[in-house]
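To whoever is on call:

I kicked off a structure prediction for a single chain this morning and the downstream step that reads the tokens threw a length-mismatch warning. I double-checked the sequence; it's 390 residues and nothing unusual in it as far as I can see. Pasting both halves so you can look.
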Amino acid sequence: MNNILTVVNKEFSRFFKDKRLVLSTLILPGLLIFVLYTLLGSVFYDETTVYTVKVVHPSVFFSALFEPQEGETSQFSLQEEEEGEIEAVKEEIRAGTTDLLVVLPENFDALLAGGAFSPVGEAPNVEIWYNSASIDSSSAFGTVSAELDALEDFFSNRFDINISAGGDVSTAQEAEASYYAMLLPFLILTFLFSGCMGLAPESIAGEKERGTIATLLVTPIRRSELVIGKIASLSVLSALSAISSFIGTVLSFPKLAGGDIGSAISAYSAGEIVALLAIMLSAVLLIVSLISITSSYAKSVKEATSLAVPLMIVVMLIGLSTMMFTVSSSAHAVFLIPVYNCVQAMAEIFSLRFSWINLVITLASNFVYIVLLVWILTRMFKSERVIFNR
């Protein structure tokens, strides 16, 4: 029994005296879960989404369906519009400044009250115009059409919805591009991070674990040159791995989405493809730098991998953001946020909303972050306490 307790005490002592193990095993998992669940709760429950709906021939019955209710996370801002402005509002829906256009019959309230109903006449049509390429517009359309369907049933089918007019203002190409914009940034980011994870820990933490890092440090080379050389080589190898996976995804995605590869590629200009590659390169450099810093802190490849897992989860969550909400192209400050700016810039390209301004902001800010991370990594390489785990 004493021998068992001795072994237990030895293992406990080894674990709790190692700050890295305590951090990666006990503190980070709980902290990360708390942060992620808090962020998810903020996205899905705390924030109220306000949809802009323009209505031609406003109706008391219709407005009553969308009276603000306490505790609801979806609110509808109904705005009166003139009949002659219908085409202009459709353009606003395509541009994303308006979510929905509802064109009601002139006598809609009287119709529902029974005064304008004729059993032998044709039921008037309610037009709902939306953009299926927009997450907010599609969501608003689903809610409004469901409410009108319920109202139609309640009043014994006294009107129809989108029978003679109304529908989707986006083209088939725009709808397909929206599908790509939701999924491809996440997949690309996953490929980039996977490629970096497979190379960076072995290159730095592996050198420390094998003891060969000391040989490198005594060679006549500056620490900054060593750091830049490692990051550059790791970035090239990670990018090649990611590009290989990306090509396979691009070739298969049109079939998965029901289209063909020719039309999918022709939708994007040469400039947009070059911009996409530039964004991917900056993302690779950023991710390699981050993983290299965690690898420099770790004692072994296994520890470096475990320390990089929280970073991976955060990056994956950022990649999923395009499936949850869209960002306006005019929100330039968003493109200063590292990693998130790459995701949103790629989403703009895939959704055919490419902006040179946002591309420049993304690349310039990432360059600053990369320089800063390289400087931090150089400082770590100059510290014997970090490199030799003293």
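Update from on-call: the warning came from a stale cache, not from the record. Cleared it. Sanity check on the structure: Strands lie at 49-56, 74-81, 100-103, 125-130, 160-161, 167-168.
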